[in-house]
Amino acid sequence: MHKIACHECDLVHDIPPMPERAAARCVRCGSILFRSRKNSIDRTLAWTLAGLVLYGIAVSYPFLTMKSGSIAQQTSLLSGVEQLYNQKNVALATLVLLTVVLLPLIQLLSLVYIFIPLKFNLRGRFAIPVFRLLGQIRPWSMMEIYMLGILVSIVKLAKMATIVPGLAVIAFSLLIFVLTFALSAVDHHMVWERLEKDL
Amino acid sequence: MTVKYGSAKRMGLVSCRDCHLLSRWPEVRDSQIVCCPRCGSELHRRKRNSLTRTWALLLAAMIFYIPANVLPMMITSAVGSVQADTIMSGVLYFLHSGSWEIGLVIFIASIFIPFMKFIILIYLLISVQFKLVTQPENLTRLYQLTEAVGRWSMLDVYVVSILIALVQLGVLAEISAGPAVLYFALVVVTTMLAAESFDPRLIWDVVEEKDE
To answer: Dihedral, CA atoms, B14, B145, B115, B122, nearest 10 degrees?
Structure first.
């Protein structure tokens, strides 16, 4: 039995030991208090490692190619950032770089840094601040919105050119799901308890 | 389990926003800070100056929203002609060219969502400030909605960044980012920060005060 306050309305609840894969809701405002997960460590690690492989492919292989007559323009995931930078839009280039390229990588690396030691009952030196960071950056990591942007761009250019999606686009779209699965396999309550115990 | 006034603040407790640990709130002076015993992040029983901060960020976002919609998002130069597109003209282009679904997606993400966020945040702020809370559950849902959908407004910023990378055909055609993109990105960032600085627990504080 432990006590927890609702994140949205501050009502204090007594939480009994929870079965695996269950969610507790606030009795007053109805928000989710927390969820318990099954095999959290193994599942998080498996998705994360798959995510790292996909990430490698997504940044290094051709992303989209535009073919119009005899001209073909090939781009990578970073081309948009580069082009914004060339057009002197440094702030925008940084924003796109962060939200689409860097933050997902930081998420994957943080998960590795926390969960590989946890698997062996260890704790990295910076595990606590890293785990806090992981929770804070989630809303700012926007791969799925970028993916929708790709679809819109393809439709927009459909009349003037043919757009050929490269291997990186496939890896990128899979990565969206894989990273979501990795993050939702994390059992926050369990991780915090384990991180605390090793102090 | 359902004690009527069971909020952590009333019980002399404080919940950590980062790790969710519930700990005792010590007697402190205003200048002192309290840190979570488990994760070390700074503890506040309610987010600091939540209403003022949210108002400020919201006003900033509403100001940025004007140039974001009026100025061109994208400048297309193709063999001799130059065309500047705003968000709305982009939406209209899709409506006329037959892909109305895409036009609708852009309209929702770029025009409707930021506008809806303004309205909801103003409604939440006024409800809390003037203690006009009648349906706290619904206000909480509205707050969670603004938190969840706000990010999707980034769509148009990404579309521009993808198009300018793809369409670099030298003399034939070139696309460059217009001044509105930066303002638009600022709208998204400031509304996200505004939603983050609003403290939904204030809604329930009003209800508890009334019940007393």
So the answer is: -40
Contacts with B147 (C-beta within 8 Å, 6 or more apart), sequence order: A139, B195, B196
Residues 156-195 of A with CB under 8 A from B: 156-157, 159-160, 163, 188-189, 192, 195
Q: Quick check: A142 contacting B, CB < 8 Å?
A: yes
Cβ separation of A80 and B161 shorter than 8 Å?
yes
What is the reported pTM?
0.92
> In A, which residues are within 8 Å of B1 by CB distance?
13-14, 27
Chain B residues inside the 8 Å CB shell of A87? 164, 176-177
Distance CA(B121)–CA(B77), nearest Å, equals 39
- Shared domain for B91 and B24, answered yes or no, is no
Q: What is the ipTM of this complex?
A: 0.92
**Cβ of A64 under 8 Å from any chain B Cβ?**
yes
Q: Are residues B161 and B189 in the same domain?
A: yes
Q: Is A122 on the interface with B (CB under 8 A)?
A: no
Q: What would the two tokens of residue A39 be? A: 């095999």
Q: What is the domain range of residue B34? A: 1-45
Q: Cα separations (Å) of A90 from A85, B3, B177, B182?
A: 5, 53, 12, 10
Domain with residue B55: its CATH number is 1.20.140
* Residue B7 identity (one-letter amino acid): S
Total structural domains within chain B: 2
pLDDT tens sequence across A8-22: 999 999 988 888 888
Q: Which residues in A lie closer than 8 A to residue B79 (C-beta atoms)?
A: none
State how far the Cα of A112 lies from the Cα of A134, in Å rounded to an integer: 11
